[in-house]
């Protein structure tokens, strides 16, 4: 049976290309890739001949390409999927396609390799168990702050991708929110100018002048086990309850603190109110 085969490419150093991935790149025929120009350059740098290969640009919203993949699989043709760097599934558009392929009862194969999430975690010096990967931070400042606040009640090391244009601002937000947290910024992983910055949130002011905001960044920070949910979100909810108390607002606040269903808590509060009356 034909397969959809996911190829993980090096995240910076082409010497990290695995023998299995190289063989697939050499022998494969149909390739769906993030950017055809970048992929051609990758093949050239790896001394792999492009001739007789069909290349298609693939994005997660491109339904016509999903249909084409399924047509090729139905014809018994293997299809290869790759992003510009790293895994095509992690923060790249493979997942919707994987779902459709499995739904159509075809097989999935993966040719693993280096990825920036684990590489950054290894270099960070932060506890590796558990770790939580959240993908790219939002572009909007308030949404980035909310993303960090949402992590404060979840113990472990949290990992985000961030743009060089926003990384200093994001580190500022995080450091203000969690001054006692261990934080790491890792950039240009496996490349010539790989750099890792490790610091506590309270020390950000003395560190930020050293950070060169160029290249691709991974931002990591650690939340100690047993940390309670905190931050402006809970404080605002608590203030609203104090100003104008009602069971609906209180149930939402308790839901955040206790990690329980807000609707069930509301019903319980309503029932208790009736008993008190």
Short summary of the structure?
This protein has 277 residues and is α/β, with parallel strands linked by helices.
User: Counting H and I runs of at least 4 residues, what is the number of helices?
Assistant: 11
Could you tell me how far the N terminus lies from the C terminus, measured between alpha carbons in angstroms?
A: 68 Å
Secondary-structure element pattern, one letter each: EHEHEHEHEHEHEHEEHEHHH
Could you tell me the CATH topology label of the largest domain: Cobalt-precorrin-4 Transmethylase, domain 1
State the CATH architecture of the largest domain: 3-Layer(aba) Sandwich
- Shape descriptor: flat
DSSP strand count: 10
CATH superfamily of the largest domain: Tetrapyrrole methylase, N-terminal domain
Strand content: 15-25%
Helix content, binned percent: 40-55%
Q: How many structural domains are formed by the residues?
A: 3
The secondary-structure class comes to alpha/beta
Mean pLDDT rating: 89
Major sheet description: 5 strands, parallel
Keywords:
277 residues; alpha/beta; Cobalt-precorrin-4 Transmethylase, domain 1; Methyltransferase, Cobalt-precorrin-4 Transmethylase, Domain 2; 3 domains; five-stranded parallel β-sheet; five-stranded mixed β-sheet; flat
Folded structure, characterized:
This protein has 277 residues and is an alpha/beta fold. It folds into 3 domains: 3-111, 3-Layer(aba) Sandwich (Cobalt-precorrin-4 Transmethylase, domain 1), CATH 3.40.1010; 116-223, Tetrapyrrole methylase, C-terminal domain (Methyltransferase, Cobalt-precorrin-4 Transmethylase, Domain 2, 2-Layer Sandwich); 232-276, no CATH class. Helix content is 42%, strand content 19%. It has 11 helices and 10 strands. The protein has a 5-stranded parallel β-sheet. Strands 6-7-10-8-9 form a 5-stranded mixed β-sheet, sandwiched between helices. The chain is flat, with a radius of gyration of 23 Å.
